[in-house]
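the two lines:
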Amino acid sequence: EPEVTQTPSHQVTQMGQEVILRCVPISNHLYFYWYRQILGQKVEFLVSFYNNEISEKSEIFDDQFSVERPDGSNFTLKIRSTKLEDSAMYFCASSAGTGFLETQYFGPGTRLLVL
Amino acid sequence: GDSVTQMEGPVTLSEEAFLTINCTYTATGYPSLFWYVQYPGEGLQLLLKATKADDKGSNKGFEATYRKETTSFHLEKGSVQVSDSAVYFCALRRETSGSRLTFGEGTQLTVNP
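prediction for all of em together
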């Protein structure tokens, strides 16, 4: 069964460094998402992406963050100048469409720790 | 804004016990409601969903009924198995909120043999 994959599974970085989290969505999906979960808190929506453009973003997704689909298979989340509070589990998801009932398929997550 | 609240965890049960995980929501309009499950080392998987009041979603022995009068979507299973041990997330999506899902905190379920 097709699945969303994410790399790395764990990443440790120093405060102020840049990190790139990678995702390979399901191959025929067109819509891509990033969510995050800070330890002990809720899973939060960050951004959705379609046709090489951001289609929706939350208030969390500020200039520190960017997303890109650099080739036909990868979808990346870049976090510039990381802060301690960026430590979280980051989930990528993809869907075939954005209809009301469309299912989003999630990857296993990347656990980011900022020291 | 939209929000989802789940019962505090973790929940520990013996095999064949009855499971209820409470979920309540706040949203304008008529959201769709979802339960996702995350098994160890895996991504969030859609378990079941309901799109309108009084709908019942079901899958793998789990059920949840969309109760608009109580703004709830409680997850139930009559007899849990060890393999049901996972984290369960309640979520909603409003038709007018685009594609974003709004999640609850997640509830860790451990089933002991």
